[in-house]
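pinned: reference chain
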Amino acid sequence: MTEVFGFIASNFFIAAGRLVFSALLVAVQLYVLRAFIRIIRSMELQKPKEKLLSITAIAFIFIVNVPLMVFVIEGVFNPREVSIYSPSPEYESLMRPFGYVFFVWTLGSLIFATAAPISMAAFAAVQFFRRKRSGAEREATIQVFDLSRRRFLQMALMAMASMPFAVSAYGAVAARSRKVVEKIIVPIKGLPSELDGLTIVQMSDVHSGMFMPESRMSEYVKIANSLRPDLVALTGDFVSTSNKQVAPFIKAISALEAKHGVFGCLGNHDIFSRSERALARGFAEYGFKLLRNENFCVDIDGARLNVIGVDFIGRRSEQSSLDDALRGISLEGTTVLLSHSPDTFDRAARLGIDLVLAGHTHGGQIALTIGDLILTPARMVTMFLAGLFRIGDSHLYVNRGLGTTGPPIRINAPPEITHITLKAE
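pinned: its structure tokens
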């Protein structure tokens, strides 16, 4: 009975959250529509043309937001499903273009709704503090303003209005087309000579699904194989939302090649989608090691490399800390820990683990960079956003991942395959 009430309460809170989020998205769309109608009216077109453009804008915004209407209805009747992000596999290729259009438009709308009031406030402030021109100056320039300046302002307004959507579209293209190999050297104190120069290729956050088809995953596997790694480390979030997405993922990675093996750990998406068993079977079928709070000792010319993998540690996981996950596991030899979340690093460093490989953050996925400052929502979750970190003699590398979650868009956080070389310090 307790479980039933817990399930009902959980569904209620999920449905309520979706309703609030849906209301926000609908409000943004109404704001964007109102702004576009005002822009059309500012163009001072003939009435028939103005009416046609206004009707076109209304129709376009209505059509592009059909997935949003599905999301709203689905949130009432089946709040745990997100069909606009994970349709049945047989319909993925058909729905993919509509998904991209919806997410590009939605993100562009959110940027527009955020930036437009700020821009208008800045413009009003400039106008307020601007020195008044003399009557003669105004009279001398009134014709110039009517004939050229007004047209310029209209064009500038349209360009500014379209900019957020152009940025969003760029992010969608960047997420699909940029394949980045990051090569780093990690110094390990006391590294045996037999392990000096050992190479590890890390891939993370693949997110198999509508926006990460098998063909793209296979391309990434080819890139990884071309690096000729000694080991391959797969640090979780292999699927997006459903265990139906396991089969194409396993089929793609089955071609991975590494001298001393392919190892993996589970991420939060793998756990909440209940894909653990299917992933474990797939890994085992091809001789790969899915390490679930366990270790595997790799003997390399007599030197011990201890590879440990832990399930995602969080609110929905069975273990509440790294100590729980590592209970009974030997930390002898040079130790590499595969942990989807980078937040295990503090404790791992205190335990003397040499190298932690993590993902989860997507490098922010959508980030604003101002010099060395990176502004992204992921900053509110972890200080370990992307790249190499060090505490004492321990190192952490956070991979930006290959796939996406939420909008299939990356801005200032390109996809990544990491080529890591261990060096004696």
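why pinned: DSSP finds eleven helices and 14 strands in the chain. Residues 309 and 338 are 5 Å apart (CA to CA).
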